[in-house]
Amino acid sequence: MARPEADRNDAGGRHGSGEFILTDSDFATIAKILHDDSGILLLPSKSNLVYSRLAKRLRVLGLGSFKEYCGFIAGAEGASERMSMLAALTTNVTHFFRENHHFEHLKAHVLPPLLAAAKQGGRVRIWSAGCSNGHEPYSIALTILSMMPEAADRDIKILATDIDPNVIAFGRAGLYDEATLEAVPKALKQRWFTPSAGEFEVSEPMRELVSFRELNLIGDWPMRGTFNAIFCRNVTIYFDQPTREKIWNRFCKYIEPDGWFFMGHSERLTGPAAKHLAYEGTTSYRRGKSIA
Question: Any idea which residues carry the catalytic annotation?
């Protein structure tokens, strides 16, 4: 998922320098809209970040002040700009096979029975929630393909979602530079990526496994089915505690009985979801048979 970058704060009620002034009131308006739209908590320590990133948006829009900008994004006509604001205020830090122990766990414990069932016509569904630029869902796909090269011919699908349409478009394009592929084993890189104008494009079988969709974790979830495993890693740390606990609990109803949930190394499961998800290993959890 897109996530805020850290920065330092200027003291006092006016932030930034040069052509614009960002007041505490302006910052509070921006922070509230970002939180209401995405659940992301924007702390006052991010005022320098807000100024530097959004000053560019003011120039693009031809606005003379942050007060004008706040008035614009608060109105109905500012809906598109609110998404541009989200993209401007967030960054995407990820790479292939990040926190690789989860993929090792997936390969050793989660996938063997699922792929065996898929060979008999069974259904396999995995959700990468907060997929960023696509490295996580494609890492899941590579893990599956390493075990079942014909996976695209089976009923196996990976749902990749993110609130930011820019990263969804990036993932769909499936083009990555060589440095990004550093953690991909050489054999997998050679088999499942195609050189393309100095970059590497995901192969068609890998592309067929992954479906990219825009989705806001604090909004409506249109999926009707459940998942054998859900990855939501290093995403909820940018929410406040009530929001993250609500999302975790919501995930529980979308996980198959005995299904799996993976969270990031800096996240700790709390709240109602802890009653339903049993700790199975490093930030790896398994859902019980039933949920009251």
Answer: 53, 162
> pTM to 2 decimals?
0.87
* Single-letter amino acid, residue 119: K
CB 109, CB 188: distance < 8 Å: no
More confident residue, 87 or 50: 50
DSSP state of 154: S
Helix (H) or strand (E) holding 35: helix 24-38
- Six-digit token pair at 14? 């006016």
Q: Taking Cα atoms as reference points, which of 130, 159, 114 lies closest to residue 232?
A: 130
3-state secondary structure of 160: strand
Task: Assign 19 a pLDDT band (cuts: 50, 70, 90).
Answer: confident
CATH of 101-287, one of 3.40.50.720, 3.40.30.10, 3.40.50.10170, 3.40.50.150: 3.40.50.150
Phi-psi region of 16 (alpha: psi -120 to 50; beta: other; left: phi over 0): left
Residue 229 burial class via C-beta count within 10 angstroms: exposed 0-12, middle 13-18, buried 19 and up: buried
